[in-house]
Amino acid sequence: MTISPVYSGRPKEIRDFLEQRVYDLLDELNIPYERVDHDAAYDMGACGVISQVLGVHICKNLLLTPRNRSAFYLLAMPDDLPFRTADFSKIIGSSRLSFATEEDLRDLLGVQIGSASVLGLMNDTEHRVTLAMERRVADAEWFGCHPCRNTSSLRLKTSDLLHVFLPHIGCTPVIVDL
Among positive and negative, which fits the CA dihedral 85, 86, 91, 95? Predict the structure, then answer.
């Protein structure tokens, strides 16, 4: 995998519209971030290499829904933690969950497969998605994620995410212990 040096802030060249909106909002909110550009990262194996370069664990982001699609949950969890659907379903009091569809990712978060990101919640203007953050992710000093495209990754302070970004978009996370 090819990975750029670490940069502070947005790229100089114009990017995809959604990625540009992420940078615009982070800049508007005065949230500093570091960024690397890289080949498309579709799995946590690729993100492991990126995490080393950025000096942060990029969390695993899963968009989940029950069979009747009555609710949606974006789970941000440590990349090395095994995911058990039944455990998470029990914690949040939901019927058994499964992965949302590619169409759900696009319609709710504006992203494609492999690009799910907490930052994509800025596109959920109807607040249909509940953000669930595993406690270790919420308690970490730094937060690593894609800017809604899996060809770049960001590192920002978790406190900025929790106390500036999420309140600005009207999202209150549920903290869970997996």
Answer: positive
Chain segment 14-65, per-residue pLDDT in tens: 899 999 999 999 999 999 999 999 988 877 777 778 888 899 988 899 999 9
For 124, half-sphere exposure in the C-beta direction (CA atoms, 13 angstrom radius) is 28
DSSP state of 178: -
- CB distance 79 to 49 below 8 Å: no
Distance (Å, whole) CA 51 – CA 29: 24
Residue 121 buriedness (CB in 10 A; 0-12 / 13-18 / 19+): buried
Tokens (6 digits) for 31 = 């949230």
| The pLDDT of residue 125 | 94
The phi, psi pair for 24, rounded to 5°, reads -60, -45
Low-confidence ranges of the chain (pLDDT < 50): none
Under a CB-based contact definition with an 8 Å cutoff, are residues 133 and 173 in contact? yes
Query: Are 108 and 129 within 8 A, CB to CB?
Result: yes
DSSP of 16-32, one letter per residue?
-HHHHHHHHHHHHTT--
